[in-house]
Design a protein that fits this description.
Distance between the termini: 24 Å
Low-confidence stretches: 464-470
Strand order of the largest sheet: 5-2-1-9-20
Structural class: alpha/beta
Mean pLDDT: 92
Radius of gyration: 24 Å
Strand content: 15-25%
């Protein structure tokens, strides 16, 4: 049963957050101690969940534990990962474990600990529309509370001076494979749903994993470890020219600093578009440890002679796909370098084909006349993560993890979440609420290096004293 939310305050809120993933959860955690900021966050899911289908045993987050929700902006925050460990009486075990990178399941548990304790988070609320009300000089945010059977139980409207959108990404399925996913029968699943269907996939005689990124590698490794030696029946394919390691050198990682983000934002739009496509190995490669684990497992299976029944082929795209009767799937493949084509018959498919930013068009349809767009009809986003709107709109709409085209490869990176949240809060409060470093990289990315230029916070937008919640 859905419990009614506390009544809305009489005056407009200072901030409404849409979506509660790690990005907006970071913002909510850093906003929590700010008594002058009245904020509420809405999420349509019933509780916090972070990629539950990929919480594979042993899989780790690809950033250090310091890249939690708050530490890189406020190491003293009560919502840090170390505070979570202290609350659970696990500081000493973590200390002796000497782990710099967390397991995904532990990061998910930490975020849920924060989400369950923070006030002002409204789960089970779906935001349907955002509009600008010029007469009241506020945004109107309409939301609904779905009932257990999917029917709408309650309708609501919140007035706010500012909005931040953090609706995240959605699993991506290439067009040739969409008919297979939509048709029941032989298991064809996205990696986002892997754990929920792992038993049925393992029961298949032959399994194909499509996708040469981190999730594809993790799924392939998990299946390999669980299949009998000599009867693995696995095929791993991907479009990339190699099962390539992610760039993880110390200077390479400086592409995930505020310095590089500011440099990238100042580039011309065509240059930014070229860079995003060319820099795939900075964020779409495979962790070197995962590649080593795959090789070690394959090598172990050769110790008594013979080779494992596992085929790994990069540089391959799926042209079309179809079902053979109701028991098998046929993939029509093309090798991009050879130009050759072949067919692969398999009993199950796991699509590790990544994620795409959820389009903002649905939730922001009411603001479309006010949104300024670039040459590719994408929303323009300024340096402080605000949508560029018509000057008649005095409120701000900030975005999180929806600005890859304007802010570069660091957009989905968890390591920049706290810095971005602090930047947004500094903008909203009109002061340096969270002091941010003026320089974060040894690399000078341009001749007119912007590393020593940190944007000054604007004047606040009539923030009101805290009414209730955050």
């Amino acid at each position: 049963m859905t419990h009614p939310a506390p009544p809305e305050p009489a005056s407009p809120r200072d901030l409404v957050g849409i979506g509660i993933g790690p990005c907006n959860l970071s913002l909510a955690a850093l906003a929590h101690p700010l008594a002058e900021l009245d904020a509420v966050f809405y999420e349509q899911r019933p509780r916090f969940d972070w990629h539950p289908g990929l919480l594979i045993e042993g899989a780790t987050v690809q950033v250090p534990f310091l890249a939690d929700l708050v530490t890189l902006a406020d190491p003293t925050s009560r919502w840090s990962f170390l505070s979570y460990l202290r609350d659970r009486e696990r500081l000493f075990p973590f200390y002796f474990a000497e782990r710099f990178h967390l397991q995904r399941a532990e990061y998910d548990a930490y975020c849920r600990w924060v989400a369950e304790a923070l006030p002002g988070l409204r789960f089970g609320h779906r935001v349907d529309a955002v509009r600008w009300n010029p007469e009241r000089d506020v945004f109107e945010v309409d939301h609904t509370q779905p009932g257990a059977g999917g029917e709408v139980e309650a309708l609501g409207r919140t007035y706010t001076r500012n909005v931040v959108i953090g609706i995240g990404t959605a699993p991506y399925v290439p067009d040739p494979l969409k008919p297979l996913v939509d048709t029941p029968g032989v298991p064809v699943i996205h990696a986002a749903d892997y754990l929920g269907h792992r038993d049925s996939v393992l029961a298949a005689g032959h399994v194909t994993v499509v996708g040469s990124g981190q999730s594809g590698a993790e799924v392939f490794l998990d299946l390999l470890r669980r299949r009998p030696e000599g009867r693995e029946g696995l095929h791993w394919i991907g479009r990339s020219e190699a099962f390539a390691p992610m760039e993880y050198s110390k200077l390479g990682l400086e592409h995930f600093t505020p310095d590089y983000t500011r440099y990238f934002h100042a580039l011309a739009e065509p240059v930014r578009d070229r860079l995003v496509a060319a820099q795939w190995q900075l964020h779409k490669g495979i962790d070197a440890g995962t590649l080593a684990a795959i090789h070690d497992e394959l090598y172990r299976r050769t110790l008594h002679g013979g080779w494992p029944d596992a085929v790994l082929t990069p540089g391959v795209r799926v042209r079309t796909a179809g079902r053979i009767a109701t028991t098998k799937i046929e993939l029509h493949l093309e090798h991009l370098q050879q130009g050759s084509r072949s067919r692969l018959t398999t009993d199950a498919v796991v699509l590790a084909t990544g994620y795409r930013e959820r389009p903002l068009d649905r939730v922001l349809a009411g603001l479309d006349p006010y949104i300024r767009r670039d040459n590719g009809e994408r929303p323009r986003v300024d340096e402080e993560f605000r949508l560029v709107l018509d000057p008649s709109v005095t409120g701000s709409v900030h975005v999180q993890n929806a600005e890859l085209h304007t802010h570069g490869v660091g957009t989905p990176d968890l390591g920049l979440a706290a810095w971005r949240s602090a930047t947004i809060l500094n903008s909203l409060t009109g002061k340096e609420t969270y002091p941010l470093p003026r320089r974060t990289a040894f690399t000078s990315f341009g001749l007119d290096d912007p590393a020593d230029r940190v944007p000054q916070a604007r004047q606040p937008k009539r923030l009101t004293p805290l009414v209730e919640g955050i």
